[in-house]
Amino acid sequence: MKNPRITIHDLAKELGLSSSTVSRALQDNPRISEKTRKDVTELAAKWNYQPNSNASNLRKGRSNTIGVLVPRISRHFFSNAIAGIEAVSSAAKRNVVIFQSHESLENEKAGLEAFLRIPVDGFIMSLSAETRQYEHIREVLKRDIPIVFFDRVLEEENNYRVVLDDYAGAFQATEHLIRQGCRKIAFMGGPDYLNNYRERKRGFTDALEKNNLSVNPGWMAEQALTREEGAAFVEKIFGQSVQNRPDGLFSCSDYSALGAILFMKKTGIRIPEEVAVAGFANEPFTEFMEPAMTSVDQSAEEMGQSAAEMLFRIIDSGDAEKSAKQQYIQPKLVIRKSTMK
C-alpha cells in the first residue's frame, strides 16, 4: 500500500477493528487477544507503520524537546558545550533547539519566549553579557519549567547550575606565572556582574596575596575581552618606563591575550623573556600561534554533558528537589611557550 504516512486509523479500517484496539495491540496490551495483536503487528510491519511520537508526547504533556540558549555558537567554548548537550540528548532520544542571544538582553528574552511557544520541556542557558536584570527568567521559573544554567549563571539560591571552577583556574594560571619568576603581573578581566569573570578576578588577586605580591590598580583592566581591547590595554601600560612595566600578564580571555601578544611582538617586547602571558579558554588558535599560548581549558564538552544530564534528571523525576543543585567542573592549565621563561 502506498501512502505518505500510515496511521492507526488506516490499520483499523483495513482490519475492521477500532482505533483504540489497534493502539492497544501495538502496545502489546494483554487485554487484546494474541491473534489480534499478531494481525495488527504484521500489517503494521507490511505497511511500514511509524507511530506518531508527537501525538504520544502531547498526550503525556511532553514535547521531548529542550531549548538551549547561548551567547554565540561561533565561540569554541559554546560550540563544544553544545556538542556535549547534543550527545547526551541524542542518547536520551530528545530533540535540541538552539537560540543565540548574540550577547543581547533583548535577544535573550526573545529566545525564551520562542522556546515557550514551541514548547520545550526545559532549558539549558548561559546568560548574555548584557544581562543584569532577571525578571524574564524568573517568569519562566514561575511556570515550573526547569532551567539549568551553565558558565554564566543566575546566582540565586535554588537555581540549577553547572559551572567551571573559574576561581581555581585563575589561581592556577597566576601561581604558574609567579613560579616562572613573574613579580609584577597585570590583569585583563570582564564585567564583575557576571559570575565567571568575577571569580577569575578573585582567583588572580588571591594568588598574588598568597605569594605576598601586591595588586597594582593601574594594571587591572576591568573590561578587556576582545583582541582590540587587549591591544589597547597593553599599549597603555607598556607606554610607561621600562622599570615600571609588568613582567607577567593574566587575561580572562584568550582573545584579549592574543591582542596583547600581537601588540608586544610588533613593538619588540619579547615573550616570554620580558613578559609571560597566560589566557583563559584554550581556544584552538592558542596552540598554533607563536609563541603558543598558555591557557586554562574549560572542559566545555563535559560541562554541556553535565548540564544536559542534570536537566533530564529533573524532567524525568518530576521532582526538581531530587537533583543536585550545583556541579563544578575542574579546570586544566595547559602550559605552553608563552609563559616558559
Automatic annotation (TrEMBL):
Source domain of life: Bacteria
Keyword field contains Signal: no
Molecular function per GO: DNA-binding transcription factor activity; transcription cis-regulatory region binding
Domain HTH lacI-type: 6-60
InterPro entries referenced in this protein's UniProt entry, alphabetically: HTH_LacI (IPR000843), LacI/GalR-like_sensor (IPR046335), Lambda_DNA-bd_dom_sf (IPR010982), Peripla_BP_I (IPR028082)
Annotated keywords: DNA-binding, Transcription, Transcription regulation
A Pfam family it matches: Peripla_BP_3
Name listed for the protein in its UniProt record: LacI family transcriptional regulator
Classification lineage: Bacteria, Pseudomonadati, Bacteroidota, Bacteroidia, Marinilabiliales
